[in-house]
């Protein structure tokens, strides 16, 4: 059964097991997720892949910030820190859908707020990467449908997240 098959991912030197959301939880979260992500993706889409006024940058790092800044600022104006925190909590801890290998423990521990604070302290980008993996696992059709709307942006985003996962954490 799909509900009993976790996805194993390694992020920032930690091994996580992502369990799927139930169908109704996934449906509930999808509304918030779309409202959260679409403005951000839409803001940067014209500046990637040669499809717009941003000079056809091949990666987010190549985007002409002077040209993209108004669009990015506009998108981020709709996203408060409280909203980002709430979305991350919903994806990572509220539904108790993630466990993590903990040193000196035989079984993985459920990711809760205290454990997340310990794991991601000083490495909050890893929390975003894990959230992205939760989205990718639970909404496998999301990126293909988004890709049809925004061209190569989603492929570049997927490749960027994969490259961040394989990068060794700084010490």
Describe the 3D structure:
The protein is an alpha+beta fold. The protein is 57% helix and 9% strand. It has 7 helices and 4 strands; from the N terminus they run E-E-H-H-H-E-E-H-H-H-H. It has a 4-stranded antiparallel β-sheet, covered by helices on one side. Strand 3 (98-100) and strand 4 form a beta hairpin. Helix 1 runs antiparallel to helix 2 (65-77), helix 1 packs antiparallel against helix 3 and helix 5 crosses helix 6 (140-150).
Overall pLDDT? 77
Radius of gyration: 17 Å
Tell me, briefly, the overall form.
globular
Biggest sheet features? 4 strands, antiparallel
Order of helices and strands: EEHHHEEHHHH
Number of strands: 4
Distance between the termini: 40 Å
Low-confidence stretches: none
What's the helical proportion of residues? Answer: 55-70%
Percentage of residues in strands: 5-15%
Strand order of the largest sheet: 1-2-3-4
Count the DSSP helices. 7
SS-based class: alpha+beta
List its traits.
single chain; 171 residues; alpha+beta; four-stranded antiparallel beta sheet; 7 helices; 9% strand
